[in-house]
Amino acid sequence: MRILITNDDGINAPGLKVLEAIAEAVAGPTGEVWTVAPAFEQSGVAHKISYTHPMMIAELGPRRVAAEGAPADCVLAGLHDVMPQLPDLVLSGVNRGNNAGENTLYSGTVGGAMEGALQGIRSIALSQYIGPRNAGLDNLFEAAAAHGADVVRKLLDHGIWDEGGYRLFYNVNFPPVPAAEVRGLAVTHQGWRENSVFGVEPHYSPSGRKFLWIKGGRQDQPGPEGSDVAANLSGYTSVTPMRADLTAHDLVADLKDRLG
Questions:
Q1: What distances in angstroms separate CA 40 from CA 7, 71, 93, 160, one per listed residue?
Q2: Is 9 annotated as belonging to a binding site?
Q3: Among 40, 88, 124, 144, who pairs with 174 as Cys (CB 3.0-4.6 Å)?
Q4: How many whole angstroms separate alpha carbon 93 and alpha carbon 80?
Q5: How far apart are CA 110 and CA 91, in angstroms?
Q6: Contact 151, 237 (CB under 8 A)
Q7: Cα 132 to Cα 122: distance, rounded to the nearest angstrom
Q8: Domains of the chain listed by start with CATH number
Q9: Residue 241, Cβ neighbours under 10 Å: how many?
Q10: Ranges of the chain with pLDDT below 50
């Protein structure tokens, strides 16, 4: 199997090393793992692409390339320039921090997997939830490292992989617990944390200029039953099927009636 991996934490991020190990285990001894990842951290860029300016890429080693762009840019570079043949699978992550709930909408990690799906490649985003029970571990990615390859194999063997324009991809979040305490796998919907929206925090420079830091909400807020957030906080690895189509299909017919 030929696998392309990327992330949004940058090419030197520890989570990418975890993903490399996962990809190598899935690809097998005769497979290939190609890395095209951002030269610098690109967290929070969602599905951004560098449409209005070029990006420089640099080969750092065999099958290892850094790109001055977002994760979606890296997938485009990998598919259409770096790799001599298209991959069988795109993996994005392992993100440092969860991409469950509303975080999904901001996530560059999810954006990389989304781009892979739009390009017609099976794609999975992987993220590691962090909390009090795993933040102090020698390897806070312990749960992802221990269970990641098995989750990817299960999705490849038993997941739904459709065709068409907005084809499915998967968002996987490993729970904030040690590897031995992961309770299993849960198929979930995207959740919502009450009272946990993003905001801003103002600061002033020595010259008196005002700057704003984007500030995230609390990540320990519960989500609704059946959601990725609820599953993760209960010790389960969440698997959420997703599409890039943002249409509220459940409202289309009603809106037609309302607007005549």
A1: 10, 11, 14, 33
A2: yes
A3: 144
A4: 20
A5: 10
A6: yes
A7: 33
A8: 2-192+223-259 (3.40.1210.10)
A9: 16
A10: none
8 carries a ligand binding annotation: yes
pLDDT of residue 196: 87
- Which residue carries 């969440």 as its tokens? 238
| Helix%, strand%, coil% for the chain, nearest 5 | 30, 25, 45
User: Would you say 43 is a known binding-site residue?
Assistant: yes
81 DSSP 8-state letter: I
State how far the alpha carbon of 218 is from the alpha carbons of 102, 129, 179, in Å: 12, 12, 23
Q: How far apart are CA 3 and CA 55, in angstroms?
A: 22
**Residue 153 is inside which H or E element, if any?**
helix 142-158
**CA 92 – CA 172 distance, rounded (Å):** 10
Q: Helix, strand or coil for residue 24?
A: helix
Q: What is the pLDDT of residue 203?
A: 97
